[in-house]
Structures are given as C-alpha cells and as structure tokens.
Task: inverse folding
C-alpha cells in the first residue's frame, strides 16, 4: 500500500537498499521514505544490523594425532555505514565466515597436543577472531566475539582420558588411605608402648612386693626358729610354693596337661634324677627315722611303723632341699612340724 502511494517504512535495526533503474542509489535508514516507483526507484533488499551468531563445527587433528571436533561460535553484525558493501560484495556471508574459521582452526590446532588444545582455547579463539576481523572488515561486517565453546575428542579417547583421571584420583585416595592407616598404627603402637610401660611398672612393683614378703618371712622365721639360715628358710618357701602350684594345677578344671622335658637328653636326665632320688631318699629316710625315734614318741603313730615321705618322687631340686633340711637345726627342733609339711 505504501509503495503504491510512493512511500515505504523501514523498521528499526534494519536498512533498505534502494536502486534507481537497477543501479545502487542509497541506503535508507529506519523511518518513512519516499519511493517514486514511477521514476524508476525500487527496493533492492533489506539488511539487518542486529548481532547474529553462527555455530561452526570443525573436525581436525591435534599434534599427537587425535581427531577432535572443535565447536566455534562467531558473533557478527553488518555495519550501517558499510551496508552497501555488506549487501553487494558477499552473496553468502555465513559460508564465507565458515571458510575462514575452518582455515584458522585447521592451521592452529595441529600445532598443539590434545591437552594443550584444551588449555589454549582462548588463544585459538583469539586467532580466529583476528583473522575474521581482518578479512570481513573489507566486506562491511564487524566480528563482535569469537568463542571456542567445545573441543570434542573421539569417544574412545574421552573414555581413556577419564580412566587416566580416575586412576590418578584412586592413587591419591590410596595414598591418603595408607597415610590414615599409618597414623592409626602409630597411635596403636604408642598406646601399646604406654600400656607395656605401665604394665612393667606394675610387674616391677609386684616383684618388689614379693621380695619384701619373702624377706619378711625369712627374717620372721629365723627369729622364731634359732639356728636356721636364710637359705634354709628360702628353700622351704620354694618347696611350699611347689606343692601349692601342683595342688592348683590338679584342682583346676581347665588344666588337662603338665609339660615335662622331652627328648633323648631329657630321658637320660630324668633317669639319673630318679636314681639319685632313690639313693638320697634312703639317706633322708634314715635321718628322718632317727630323728623321729629321738624326738617323737613311738605310741604317737601306733604299733605301725612310722610313715616316711616319698622323697624319691620329688624333683632333684626338692630332694636337695629335703637333704639340707634333714641335717639342719630346724629338723632336730621341729621334726614333727617338718614331717607333716613333707607328707
């Protein structure tokens, strides 16, 4: 309707190219313009001044022979003062821009390894932008921004990279776990060392108390029974402890065995101890019998013969202790008491 009346309306952010008998005449800005078509004027076309975006996917390979797809986004717009050049000099603007982008990317990426390509995305985008700016400015276009939005390697390569990353993280995790185990073991060792230290103090105090008790027993026995030496009293204490131990082993419900020396040498030692015990037992028996006839009335045991201790059944160390007791002052003065202890 407007052209029928000889007027046209140009929208905002657009320009109109007017021709006069097929020749470029002027660029019409947004607004209302006179278009006397009867005089040979006509509208050749419209050109948008808005910023446009072109997404380009370019396949290339890196320096380490890995094929990748580089996705670039080009933002551009036509310049109002060079609208005629943008309209007449380029027939396919997008194809022209795409050709320049392919050329720059395929010249830059093969110089870089795959990791370097990921790290230098901004440098690649800058190279593409500089090349496009220099080439497209002559055609009336301005390159607003160039972005390398993605670098997509092959699926197998991507999987391998993920596995490398996972292995590295597992190595770090294993190191941290080992460090935690190390700290735990150190703390456990420190606790055990402290426990053993305190246990050692307790054992030392226990042994000190045992020594003090033995000393008091020896001193008290020596004072009460004149003529006995400390060694005699200590031997008697050991003899008493031996019988107490044997009694506890026999009375315990959980004890089922007693360890004795074994092997050829041990058998020979046991045989010699038995023979020695029999000989020394007879001597000790005679001493005890003489002592009993001297110090113990005959009617105390009745008409039967006095019972003698089974000395031959005792170990060698206890036989020696009995022998010493047989000739000591304690036997002569307390024969009845000693005889009862041995029985």
Result:
């Amino acid at each position: 309707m407007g052209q029928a009346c000889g007027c046209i309306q140009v929208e905002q952010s657009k320009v109109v190219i007017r021709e006069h008998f097929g020749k470029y005449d002027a660029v019409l800005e947004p607004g209302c313009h006179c278009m006397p078509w009867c005089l040979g004027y006509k509208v050749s076309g419209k050109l948008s001044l808005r910023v446009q975006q072109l997404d380009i996917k370019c396949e290339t390979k890196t320096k380490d022979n890995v094929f990748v797809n580089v996705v670039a986004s080009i933002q551009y717009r036509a310049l109002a003062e060079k609208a005629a050049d943008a309209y007449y000099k380029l027939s396919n603007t997008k194809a022209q821009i795409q050709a320049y982008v392919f050329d720059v990317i395929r010249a830059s990426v093969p110089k870089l390894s795959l990791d370097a390509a990921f790290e230098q995305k901004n440098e690649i985008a800058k190279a593409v932008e500089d090349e496009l700016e220099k080439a497209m400015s002559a055609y009336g276009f301005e390159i607003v921004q160039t972005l390398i939005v993605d670098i997509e390697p092959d699926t197998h390569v991507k999987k391998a990279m993920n596995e490398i990353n996972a292995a590295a993280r597992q190595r770090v995790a294993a190191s941290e776990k080992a460090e935690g185990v190390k700290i735990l073991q150190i703390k456990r060792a420190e606790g055990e060392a402290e426990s053993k230290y305190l246990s050692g103090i307790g054992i030392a105090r226990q042994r000190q108390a045992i020594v003090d008790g033995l000393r008091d027993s020896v001193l008290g026995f020596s004072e009460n029974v004149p003529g006995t030496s400390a060694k005699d009293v200590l031997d008697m204490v050991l003899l008493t402890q031996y019988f107490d131990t044997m009694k506890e082993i026999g009375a315990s419900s959980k004890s089922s065995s007693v360890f004795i020396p074994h092997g050829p040498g041990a058998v020979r030692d046991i045989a010699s101890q038995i023979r020695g015990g029999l000989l020394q037992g007879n001597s000790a028996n005679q001493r005890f019998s003489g002592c009993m006839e001297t110090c113990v009335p005959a009617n105390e045991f009745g008409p039967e013969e006095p019972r003698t201790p089974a000395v031959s059944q005792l170990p060698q160390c206890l036989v020696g202790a009995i022998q010493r007791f047989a000739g000591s002052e304690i036997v002569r003065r307390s024969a009845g008491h000693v005889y009862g202890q041995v029985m």
Notes: The longest strand covers residues 141-153. The first helix runs from residue 2 to 5. The radius of gyration is 58 Å.
